[in-house]
Amino acid sequence: MDEHPFPNYSAEFEFQKYHTEVGHFQINHEGEKICGDVFLSKRIPEENRVLCVLSDGMGHGVRANVLATLTATISLNFSLEHKDANALASIIMKALPVCSERKLSYATYTIVDVSVVDDKVSILEYDNPQTFILRGNKIYEPEWMHVKYEDGAKDKRIMDLKKCTFTPQLEDRIVFCSDGITQSGLGKGFTMGWGRNSLIMFVRELIETTPDINAAELAERVVKHAASNDLYTPKDDLTCGVVYFREPRKAILCTGPPYNQEKDADFANILKNFKGKKIVSGATTTEIISRELKRPVVDEEKFDPTLPPSSKMEGVDLVTEGVLTLSKVTHLLNNITLNSNIQFGKGPADRMCKMLLATDEIYVLVGTKINEDHHNPNLPVEIEIRKHLIQRLTKVLAEKFMKVVITEYM
């Protein structure tokens, strides 16, 4: 276990043996503007836990999306409360309408629950193609259990649930999808559709040729191949979700001078000893790091007319101005569309965004000395500009991009 980069960090935080990377990709049913599959994910930092849910609403279009959204939201919210399989099935069954002919609920679901502290993954699924786990590029078969739930009503509605629990290892990948994937190509070259076995073979070959492929890219490749099976006119919604356990990528962001000048050396040494990408934001912060570590600062070419240029310092990956740059970074992150092909420029805010998004664990070291240029003495310290920016920045990183963010004030 590595030494914690913040020696005085008092909150409960277990170092992760692996980073839980989550990715998904979707293509709508031909001619539909909205997907009938819904994918939700949430990181719960206080429990060191990650939840993912994929629900497939019966049919396609708006009606399917409403049913899938309801199912996915219930599944996520009640999984947060550690509800068992029967309790969850009961809640979902009572909430959803039922097909009058088949006596089945109008949406399916797969729930993946990763607990880093317990070193355990639990999977619960109903009527989706069976999830598979790749350990490296070989199939790992956990012990699946069947759980039948009856609601006790006159029509005796039954849910045949499958669940498993296993201990993940580095380089494990969990792959789950809607039946649009496995049934793709039906009547267009595939007698029974693409099928689960062919899907597994496709994923294994991808991992053999590109062993470091990330979760989002793997999901995208699966979905696009399924669309090609349908000659790019999919007759069902296509969704694939991937959970990838890998070595965490780390970064530290240092901004603001320490409250006590006596802490300047400690502040600089935390940056110096950190193992990962290093970002320094703020002119005064840069001066302190430069002075304490005896490293000169050299200005770089200006690429963003709205911001001061970035600088170079030995051993630091990015050196920028403070408040203006952090404000633009927060704005850019808030306005990024998830799962889009993001093209960043060469300006300091763009470079910081790109670096933060490529990182899993982000350590933010914030000096709390008041900068007289930005401080209104009539306002309490808690809403001083830099602190407010850091709160907004860490919130979007944690909630929107599911980053593990640890903040220390000095």
Description:
- The chain contains 10 helices and 18 strands.
- The protein is of the alpha+beta class.
- Helix 6 packs across helix 7 (283-293).
- Strand 17 (361-366), helix 10 and strand 18 (404-409) form a beta-alpha-beta unit.
- The protein has 2 domains: 19-246, Phosphatase 2c, domain 1 (4-Layer Sandwich); 250-409, no CATH class.
> What count of domains describes the coordinates?
2
Cα separation of the termini: 24 Å
Q: Can you summarize the main beta sheet?
A: 7 strands, mixed
Helix content: 25-40%
User: What would CATH call the class of the largest domain?
Assistant: Alpha Beta
The count of strands amounts to 18
Order of helices and strands: EEEHHEEEEEEEHHHEEHEHEEEHHEHE
The chain-level structural class is: alpha+beta
- Choose one word for the global shape: elongated
Q: Assign the CATH topology of the largest domain.
A: Phosphatase 2c, domain 1
Mean of residue pLDDT values: 87
CATH arch. level architecture of the largest domain = 4-Layer Sandwich
Percent of residues in beta strands? 25-35%
Main-sheet strand order equals: 14-15-16-13-12-17-18
Give keywords.
alpha+beta, 410 residues, Phosphatase 2c, domain 1, 18 strands
Concise overview:
By secondary structure, the chain is an alpha+beta fold. The chain is built from 10 helices and 18 strands.
Show the helix and strand layout.
Layout: E1 19-27, E2 37-44, E3 49-57, H1 61-80, H2 85-95, E4 107-115, E5 120-126, E6 132-135, E7 138-140, E8 145-150, E9 158-166, E10 172-177, H3 179-182, H4 196-209, H5 215-229, E11 238-246, E12 250-255, H6 264-273, E13 277-281, H7 283-293, E14 297-299, E15 311-313, E16 316-320, H8 323-335, H9 348-357, E17 361-366, H10 385-399, E18 404-409
Parallel strand pairs: 12-13, 12-17, 13-16, 17-18
Antiparallel strand pairs: 1-11, 2-3, 3-4, 4-5, 5-9, 6-7, 6-10, 8-9, 10-11, 14-15, 15-16
Helix pairs in contact: 1-2, 6-7, 8-9, 8-10
